[in-house]
Design goal:
The complex is a heterodimer of chains A (181) and B (261). Chain A is mostly helical. Chain A is built from 9 helices and no strands. Helix content of chain A is 75%, strand content 0%. Classes of the chains: A mainly alpha (181), B alpha+beta (261).
């Protein structure tokens, strides 16, 4: 069976075809979720953000862009904005909830929950280490270093020139090395 | 480059299915609704109390006007606003159709409380809240945000582990926060009232309504413009004509069962 090209999917999406959205979801939700987790360090927020990303894609379907045959860079751009726009209150609430004791865990879930908490803790530490970077440099770092996008795709995601991606990443690396992160 | 490698956190099957269902439900809901130009305006980003507009009123605003989250360089948000405010010529609006955002509540609630049946719907300018009963338990489903919020079930007779005055907290993408609490008015109480004082200084008292099944319900909705101030800590709660409240903790502003806090 021939896989529908993403240019075709984008065209159907612009025409209001909901199936095109679900197909995009099936293709890319995992990567978007991982990206959102890296930006939030919280599985629940990553889940919420992933859903919001695809609802935003639907809402802005007339703007969908395909870069080099893939809508993924544009999706990454939407996801970056969605996660960046988590309100300050929401983040504060996240921190507050993180301080509250966890309920007793059932033994069969305990291992999975511990792993989850461990990942969240590790991700929080990583985010804390890059917290002093300007937002634009963190965005590039997350897309290129953590999510593995090419400079070209990251530039498409952020709608900036490729040279800007290179310079931001270079500055980010330099800052982090100077700080010994 | 220093070692800043994030842990791998894959999306598990249950999460993938849950989010997919949310996306698909939104598409279905949107097809059932008239376009937003014909919807009742939503009073967003202001602190408002709940006004009971009727014991059984369906409908509610479509909060579909969040911030501009498409990547930069695409048309401006004002352009987008203009586009969405004007119905597309290919889609004929249906002004006579009543939007029913509570329709999704039935499905969402039964996943939390199997067999749940509606008792009453309370409607205000910002959305609707539906109370459900199943056996000896009740819960509520709130539609003040685009995302539905269902509370953890609690015993109708009172008691149980959960704080009876706990609130759900939802942060709309457009900003602000919605805090919702509700429950059964104790039998025989004639002057029951719950009053919350939130960290942002807002004071909200309960409204009361009778359900189809004869029960009386109370509800408090706080729609705060400043999410940070409203959720800086748990509110204080005072109860008249009912069981005394025990102080709320941070976990008590996370009453939702169907999504994260």
């Amino acid at each position: 069976m021939t896989r529908t090209s993403e240019a075709d999917l984008a065209q159907r999406l612009r025409a209001g075809d909901g199936d095109a959205l679900t197909e995009l979801y099936d293709r890319h939700a995992d990567r978007i979720y991982r990206h959102c987790f890296r930006l939030t360090a919280d599985r629940a927020y990553a889940e919420d953000a992933t859903g919001t990303v695809f609802l935003e894609v639907w809402r802005h379907r007339q703007r969908v862009r395909v870069h080099d045959g893939s809508a993924l860079p544009w999706l990454y751009g939407v996801a970056t904005n969605v996660c960046r726009n988590l309100t300050r209150g929401r983040r504060r609430h996240l921190r507050a909830v993180a301080r509250t004791p966890w309920p007793d865990l059932q033994p069969d879930h305990a291992e999975r929950v511990v792993e989850r908490l461990d990942n969240e803790q590790r991700m929080r530490e990583v985010l804390a280490a890059v917290d002093r970077l300007p937002q634009r440099e963190r965005d590039v770092l997350a897309l290129v270093v953590w999510s593995g996008l090419s400079y070209d795709d990251a530039a498409a995601a952020l709608d900036v020139p490729v040279g800007t991606v290179r310079s931001r990443l270079s500055r980010a690396r330099r800052r982090l090395e100077q700080e010994g992160a | 480059m220093p070692d800043l490698i994030p842990p791998d956190e894959p999306m598990d099957d249950a999460t993938r299915a849950r989010v997919r269902e949310r996306v698909v439900s939104h598409l279905h809901d949107e097809h059932r609704r008239p376009r937003r130009g014909w919807l009742v305006p939503v009073a967003a980003a202001v602190a408002v109390g709940v006004v009971v507009a009727g014991a059984v009123a369906l409908g509610g605003g479509d909060r579909d006007d969040g911030g501009d989250l498409a990547p930069a360089g695409t048309p401006s948000s004002s352009d987008e606003t203009d586009q969405t405010a004007t119905p597309e010529p290919t889609e004929t609006p249906e002004p006579t159709e009543t939007p029913d955002r509570t329709a999704g509540c039935d499905r969402e609630t039964r996943a939390v409380l199997p067999g749940a049946q509606r008792s009453v719907v309370l409607q205000d300018d910002g959305g609707a809240t539906v109370f459900y009963v199943s056996g000896a338990q009740f819960t509520l489903c709130d539609t003040h945000d685009a995302r539905l919020t269902v509370h953890h079930p609690k015993p109708i007779a009172g008691g149980g582990e959960r704080n009876p005055y706990e609130l759900s907290t939802e942060f709309p993408d457009a900003g602000g926060a919605n805090l919702v609490a509700g429950g059964v008015v104790p039998q025989g109480s004639t002057d029951f009232e719950v009053t919350y004082t939130f960290p942002d200084g807002a004071v909200e008292s309960s409204v009361e309504v009778a359900g189809d099944d004869g029960r009386r319900w109370w509800l408090v909705v706080h729609q705060a413009a400043d999410a940070g101030a409203a959720t800086d800590g748990p509110p204080t709660v005072a109860v008249r004509g009912g069981p005394p409240a025990r102080p709320l903790d941070l976990v008590d502003i996370c009453a939702q069962a169907n999504h994260g806090c």
